Amino acid sequence: MQSIGRYGFVRSKVTSFLFLLAILVSLSPLFVYFIGIPGNIIFLFTLASIIILNYNVHIDYKLITLFFLIIASSVLLGLAWQNANFITISIYCTLSLIVAKIICERYLSDVISSLTFSLLVISFLSWVGFVYALNGGVSILEVINPDGRHGFLYLTTMTNYKVGNLIRPTGFFDEPGALSFFICVTAYLRDALNKRKKITHILLALGSITFSLAHFIFIFIFFFSSKIMPLKNKLYVMFIVVLIALFVLPYLYNTEAFDTFIMSRLEVSQDGSISGDNRSERIINAFNLVNEHPKAFLFGLDDRCISGDNLCSHLYPPYGENFLSPLVHYGIFNSFYYYFIVAGFLITAIYRTRGGLNLINISVVALLLQRPYAYSYGYSLVVAVCFFIGVLGYEKKSHK
Predict the structure, then answer these.
(1) How far apart are the first and last CA of the chain?
(2) What CA–CA distance (Å, rounded) separates 106 from 72?
(3) How do residues 42-51 score in pLDDT, each as one tens digit?
(4) Which residues have CB under 8 Å from 229's CB, separation 6+?
(5) Which pLDDT score, from 0 to 100, does residue 220 have?
(6) Predicted pLDDT of residue 61
(7) Cα separation of 67 and 91, whole Å?
(8) Residue 177 and residue 168: Cα distance in Å, rounded?
(9) What ranges in 21-107 are assigned the alpha helix state H?
(10) pTM, whole model, 2 decimals?
């Protein structure tokens, strides 16, 4: 009996470690640069290892039905474009669903604790790198991100955005928004498991170094949705924050930091758009592309876009990173899984809460609308875990 218990402990720790590899390593241009193995291969290897390690997982008929629909949609996409490679598009999300079920049923608390610790370290190192750059530190390494952009290592953090001595840290990810996304998702999962709120708040505070607008919006929604204090006290806190802001902002006004990370992103252009808002134009582009190319609604815009051909970016205006991009990219059949998840969070936010909306689920919807990566490696795993927790209620079946 002792050996069985020891094996279970080791399996739990190994599974948690593999989970971190599947997210933090596969999506890190820095790690991929040193390892020399593509991120998607690392992701598939770690997921396969978790499944083999937990080979006795039970897959119920509901999950099997979802697998069938996802795989069938990929087969249909391959037939429509006469490209057999498109059948493998569903591999990331289907494997992620299996691993997410294993994690949520057996190791959820350990995995979230390990992810929290890792992101706390990464966020702290991001602050160190930010201070290093602010004091005149220079980049010590340059790598190419998966999207072709250049990433620079400033002592302890990567960045792809630099103005003067100011940088927006990305941790070990390819962009600041990615670090912010995983921090926010981790905060959501910690809240679902009733883990120590103080650690969650520290994590969110450290994540503000990304200067992501979505991050601050999430913090605002998270603060009002949490049960840390009565609503009356929350309003008092917000009033104090506003007073502090009114006192501090005049001293920051016209400084390089204020102009770079705040005013330049909120500046209203002649056409009425906000400079920091890079999503609205893409949403409009996506909507127009569906109207101009009727086939896009069913089977995606262009097989070259689905294949990741760089020619796609020259043929069509940018349409990614918004809630319409999966529809334009893959068509309605092969993007239904993403919209199914978003709809699930919206429905549970409305109907599972007595006396009002479940704001924390709404905050996850906001994250998914601006990062619709349910089919992408790395992201697909945490999206699946959130789906099991927020929609299917697996936190009630896990040890807190």
Answers:
(1) 24
(2) 29
(3) 999 999 999 9
(4) 237
(5) 85
(6) 87
(7) 10
(8) 10
(9) 29-35, 39-53, 61-81, 91-102
(10) 0.88
